[in-house]
Amino acid sequence: MSESGELAAAAGSRDPAVGLRAVRALRELADRLEELQVGNARGRGWSWQEIAVCLGVSRQAVHKKYAKRGTGSGKDGD
Fold first, then answer.
1. Predicted confidence band at 73 (pLDDT cuts at 50, 70, 90)?
2. Which residue pairs, CB below 8 angstroms and at least 24 apart, start in 10-13?
3. HEC-encoded secondary structure of 14-73
4. pLDDT in tens, 8-59
5. Which of 13, 22, 51, 55 has the most neighbouring CB atoms within 10 Å?
6. Phi and psi of 49, rounded to 5°?
7. What 3-state DSSP class applies to 9?
8. What is the phi/psi pair of residue 74, to 5°?
9. CB-hemisphere CA count at 13 Å for 2?
10. Cα–Cα separations (whole angstroms), residue 16 to 5, 20, 28, 66, 76
11. How far is it, in rounded angstroms, from Cα 74 to Cα 47?
C-alpha cells in the first residue's frame, strides 16, 4: 500500500492518537500538493480566479495565500 493509502487507513483508526496523527499528516500532504498545483497553474498562465474556482475558495483567498510565497506570477491584478 502507498504511504498516502496507509495514512488514509490510519485516519480511520479507532485509536484517536493514531487517527489524529494521520489526519495531520494528510492535511500537510494536501497543503503541499495544493501549493504545487497552484504554482503549476500560475506557470501555465491561469488567473487567480480560475484557480479559486477549482479550489472552491474566493480569488482573494487564494491570492492572499500564495502570491507572497512566490507561487504566483507576480501579477497581482489577475
1. low
2. none
3. CCHHHHHHHHHHHHHHHHHHHHHHHHHHHHCCCCHHHHHHHHCCCHHHHHHHHHHHCCCC
4. 999 999 999 999 999 999 999 999 999 999 999 999 999 999 999 999 999 9
5. 51
6. -65, -45
7. helix
8. 95, -5
9. 4
10. 18, 6, 18, 32, 43
11. 11
Domain extent listing, the chain:
3-69
Instruction: Name the amino acid, one letter, at 77.
Output: G
Instruction: Name the helix (H) or strand (E) containing 13.
Output: none
0.70 exceeded by the pTM? yes
36 CB-side CA count, 13 A:
6
1, three cell numbers: 500500500
Which cell numbers in the block locate residue 21? 496523527
